[in-house]
Amino acid sequence: QVQLVESGGGSVQAGGSLRLSCAASGLTFRDYAVGWFRQAPGNDREFVAGISWTGTSVHIKDSVKGRFTISRDNAWNTVYLQMNSLKPEDTAVYYCAVDDYNRVATMASYYDYWGQGTQVTVSS
After folding, report:
1. Which three-class secondary structure string do you get for the chain?
2. pLDDT at 36 (0 to 100)
């Protein structure tokens, strides 16, 4: 079965960095676009970043542009979210998800499978 496992979350001070990983199994990874979403308590799940099948198309949420980057390594079935200059408002559970269309969708409903999430906490 398809499994997505996020890792790399944790607690950091404002200005710090984290790199999240999303390791996929049970699917032909190169045939899926990947998105990162986050959800803070009391908020809806929101799109953060996404990358197409081959990595040639990337979309980053405006509020994290310049601080977050997304990349993928299809040889290792893994997608990364590098998060720099973290702010307290970045605190959330971060989820990765896969979409079997070659696009970067920003709506959660387009994604077929989801990981369990990893907590990111940024203190001021």
Report:
1. CCEEEEECCEEEECCCCEEEEEEEECCCHHHCEEEEEEECCCCCCEEEEEECCCCCCEEECHHHECCEEEEEECCCCEEEEEECCCCHHHCEEEEEEEECCCCCCCCHHHCCEECCCEEEEEEC
2. 98
Residues 72-112 have pLDDT tens digits of 999 999 999 999 999 999 999 999 999 999 899 999 999 99
Instruction: Go through the chain and tell me how many residues it has.
Output: 124
Are the C-beta atoms of 65 and 100 separated by less than 8 Å?
no
Mean pLDDT over each residue of the chain, to the nearest integer: 97
Distance CA 46, CA 55 (A): 21
Q: Is the dihedral of CA 97, 102, 103, 107 positive or negative?
A: negative
**How far, in Å, CA of 43 to CA of 53, rounded?**
29
